[in-house]
Amino acid sequence: MHLQNAKVNPMSSCPLFKDSYNTEMNETATAQRPMAFHVLAKPIGPICNLDCKYCFYLEKEKLYGDEKSWKMDPELLEQYIKSYIEGQQTPRIDFAWQGGEPTLLGVDFFRKVIELQEKHCPPGKQIFNALQTNGTRLDDEWGEFLSKHNFLIGLSLDGPPDLHNKYRVDKGGNDTHHLVLRGAEILKKYNVDFNALCVVNRYNAREPLRVYHFLKELGTDFFQFIPIVERDGEHEEVLDLSSPPQIQKDDSPVSGWSVHSEDYGDFLNAIFDEWVRNDIGKYYVQLFDIQLELYMGHPSSLCIFKETCGDALAVEHNGDLYSCDHYVYPEYHLGNVMNDNLGDMVAAAKQREFGQQKKTTLPKQCKECEFLNLCNGECPKNRFLNDIDGEPGLNYLCKGLMKFFRHTKPYFERMRNLLMQRRAPAELMMQLRHEEEKFDKKKVKPNDPCPCGSGKKFKQCHMRKVR
């Protein structure tokens, strides 16, 4: 399933892979045409060898119910690659390949991809490829190919076996964790760069440090934690796929695997507390990097935290282009790459309006929030609650994100200050150790302000670290 693609467009529809954190996405290009845009290509549509219980994309088969073949045909593949390259006005061009499960197409399909990219790449441009996979079909042939052509891999893994296998099963309901680890070993054997993509769900959100410690042993230094949010009965309500569900009630139920908002905040905070004391500069958590980026005054390179969106689209196996991977519904269909110019579709008024609505539909509570610049309402797909004034459009994850923003603010401010002094953020780890060693546990009472300056009570902050 597609979560949020983080290295190439960078999510997804957003950034999800490490090198793409700095991909330039100009939102105010001449004539409304972005200097660069991101398209998540699904050359096999929603077809997958797994049956992950929380996957939102499997239902998309119903869009093409009479489909005989789900493989993007050679003529369409060439047209897409050619038009995508032509639409990018930056030296670096990032392709992202997902599904479904793209490895079902076989290595030869992607050999053809490389051949066509080399054919149509003009002088002065560099092309990079990222592929998101469940890892269960990776073998030596894949490892050799991915290594030779410097593919960046997003590997889906939700933690230790019991946590991963809760929802990520095959078509027969069998566990898949051991198969993913086998795939990870292939990637390491051939020195293929990869990122761990962890879906934060109702189950594994309860054990953040088990998840984090497991991923740190996996063999990659880059992690993305993606919250799963799906309204209860969402699949059943959209069987006709005419439009996304529009539920806007404070008590809107979510599916049994969706993470509770505040649990998501607690999950992030627990991992952050370990990371900020031990792992800065050693391991990279996409959300933490994005927040530091925002504290430094830079625009977010991840679409969910941008002020507006619309520059991260999705193309189906038959060439149909949609506004976003989370909005593959007829009303968000922009055209087909075989009949319409890709750059023109991205720059079309319909798509520009789609992107602007992320900002213009914010409820009052968001507009007045002290953390608006860090969040910008997060992803529109999750904005289905009413705010405190009854205005629709509040994000389901708001409470959890507020927990995270409040908890981490003093630390990000200190990292920002270090950077402004041309010093490494990793220095904060040593500073915190020295401060915590100085705490006189007998004199600082649980309800006193924490000596670290966070503004929290000692019992809610460093007391649990030093006692």
Write the layout of secondary structure elements.
Layout: E1 38-41, H1 74-87, E2 92-97, H2 107-120, E3 126-133, H3 140-148, E4 152-156, H4 161-164, H5 177-189, E5 194-200, H6 208-216, E6 222-227, H7 234-237, H8 261-278, E7 284-285, H9 286-295, E8 312-315, E9 320-322, E10 333-336, H10 342-347, H11 349-360, H12 364-367, H13 372-375, E11 385-386, E12 392-394, H14 398-420, H15 427-438, H16 463-466
Helix pairs in contact: 1-2, 8-14
Explain how this protein is built:
By secondary structure, the chain is of the alpha/beta class. Helix content is 34%, strand content 12%. The protein has 16 helices and 12 strands. It has helices at 74-87, 107-120, 140-148, 161-164, 177-189, 208-216, 234-237, 261-278, 286-295, 342-347, 349-360, 364-367, 372-375, 398-420, 427-438, 463-466, and strands spanning 38-41, 92-97, 126-133, 152-156, 194-200, 222-227, 284-285, 312-315, 320-322, 333-336, 385-386, 392-394. The strands form 2 sheets. Strands 7-6-5-4-3-2-1-8-9-10 form a 10-stranded mixed sheet. Strand 8 (312-315) and strand 9 (320-322) form a beta hairpin. Helix 1 packs across helix 2 (107-120) and helix 8 (261-278) runs parallel beside helix 14. The protein is globular and about 75 Å long.
